[in-house]
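Subgroup meeting minutes
Present: P.N., E.W., G.H.
Scribe: E.W.

1. P.N. recapped why we're keeping a running log of single-chain structure predictions: easier to compare across weeks, and new members can see raw inputs and outputs side by side.
2. G.H. added today's entry (337 aa).
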Amino acid sequence: MKFEWAPQAYRLLNGVFCVYKPGDLPVHKVMEIIRGNLTRDLNALPCYTYERKHRDKSKVSFQEKNLPTVTSVPADMRDLSDHRLVLGDRYINSDHRLSFLHGMSRHSSGVLVMGIGSGCEFLPHLGLSRFLRVYHVKGKLGLSTDNFTPKGRIIERTSYRHVTKPRLDKICAAMQANHQKWMFQYAGLDLESQEAYEIASSGLVRPADRDVPPVIYGVKCIEFQPPDFTLEIHAINEKCTFLQNSINDIGLQLKSSAVCTHIQRLRYGHFSLEHSLLRKHWTLEHIIENIRYCRPLLVPEKLFSNHLIGHLEERKKLAANEETEMFESLESNSTIK
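Output recorded in log:
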């Protein structure tokens, strides 16, 4: 996609897009890089009216000897007060309003959903959807650090020769079973009810409220080469610190110790690696194209489950009833007076 007029391209910078965050790069640095790239690409396009009329910029030049003087001017351009060399670049970094959804720690990598312009106002709706996130979490047996990361100070070294993949799989299965009980509890469902069975049969059971503890929907070992191993974890409401603590807890249950060495997010709901822009593609054209590519993922059918829609409607009705009762009580009090 090629643009010939900067204001036209700037108006298209409204929506939700997806990038791949590299490791050892904090999220705020990602936003700073994207802002700088957008500013650079927009200012490289014609920004002022005269630049659309006169594509050949060599027609206006300045010669510096004692004082700057104009050496050549187009015939129909009499006023230089709106020239780029007088006004400067039209766009600056603060012109781009950016936000992100569910960030990651500095040393993690993977899919990062971001909003720009009016898309920043849509991100809270995505947060209410409580999408399932998929991670590949790497751990290393035999080590324990003070902050559960490989950058921390080593506080313990243990043996791991007795650890086998079947034992690791057993612990992962037990962890998944424990969290599945909480999954129905946080969704406001009775585990033995017919409603719980129907919702579980129709798809993913998401928490009814946003402020609930992390829930693991699935965990399995996909690679085991002692002392290194890799787990695939499906979770909701988790943070990187929770995943790091989980690796430490698994090490303790294995009668050993373990430290998390890397976290990679493979999917955020419907946003996957194929939707993510690599760092070399954090440019104006690719971001606008990615906004258009991600637009079909923002329809209500993909954002909310039937159970969640019903729960939100029920809460809305309760709020409306409470408001009606409050007004009725106020009217009755005024009548008595």
